[in-house]
Amino acid sequence: MAKIAVAEKGCRGCSLCGDICPVKLFEFCDGQDYPSVVRQEDCIGCFSCAYICPSKCIEVSDVEMLRPFHRIEGNAALIEKFLQEKKAAGNLAEQDLEEAYGDVSARLVALSGTIMELLGSGYKVVGRQAGTLAAAHLPEVYDEKGLDHVLSGMQRLFRESFVFDYSVSGQDVSVTFNPCGLCPIVEGAGWKVGEAVLCNVFHEFWAGLLSAFAGKPYRYQVPAAGAVCRMELHPAK
């Protein structure tokens, strides 16, 4: 049976865990500013509370994480054979791709405004959480923990959107995007590359991915932004 533990000292009392839990495990008892797990036996091990917690103070244990078979690249041919259908990407024409890019660009610009309106200065947590969630759906990357394996896997999986080179020194990582797929979107919206909400959310997303794959939290700096963007990522102390 899955077990839930809440680190009381780290909790902000935001109640997001209680709001998202499908079986309502959490309750705020009188005089407490952190949630109590009141129905432990009902937990289904969905990890929703751990994923959404902005303070990372919820731990889920005694539950097996299953690898998403359909998302593993090596299984793609088998799935196509089973379904008797080719990947949708193979049926897309150049015009379809341009239309999709325009649609995604407009949605990302709108999303930036919505995130700022709803979350204000705390908006960066959205990117970090998104990166952590996305990592669970890229199983070929986290099969091994070496940074070079992780980064080469990210390089392969994101080659259609974010072309980048990287270098590793100990546990420190330098990533250079040349070009970044978000650059033309940010410039088209009249924002400054590297400082726009969309850029900051992406940087947090990237740090969230690396943190999840490497098994340790990473912080980042962006010493260069523009036609070529560079991120420096370092383990949090």
What does this structure look like?
With 237 residues, the protein is α+β, with helices and mostly antiparallel strands. The protein folds into two domains: 3-61, 2-Layer Sandwich (Alpha-Beta Plaits), CATH 3.30.70.20; 88-235, Muramoyl-pentapeptide Carboxypeptidase, domain 2, CATH 3.30.1380.20. It contains nine helices and eight strands. It has helices spanning 16-20, 48-52, 76-83, 94-119, 124-135, 139-142, 147-157, 183-188, 197-214; strands at residues 3-6, 26-27, 36-37, 58-61, 162-169, 172-180, 218-224, 229-235. Helix 5 packs parallel to helix 9 (197-214). The longest helix is centred in the middle third of the chain and has 26 residues, at 94-119. The relative contact order is 0.11. The model has no long low-confidence stretch (mean pLDDT 84).
How do the strands and helices of this protein lay out in sequence?
Blueprint: E1 3-6, H1 16-20, E2 26-27, E3 36-37, H2 48-52, E4 58-61, H3 76-83, H4 94-119, H5 124-135, H6 139-142, H7 147-157, E5 162-169, E6 172-180, H8 183-188, H9 197-214, E7 218-224, E8 229-235
Antiparallel strand pairs: 1-4, 2-3, 5-6, 6-8, 7-8
Helix pairs in contact: 5-9
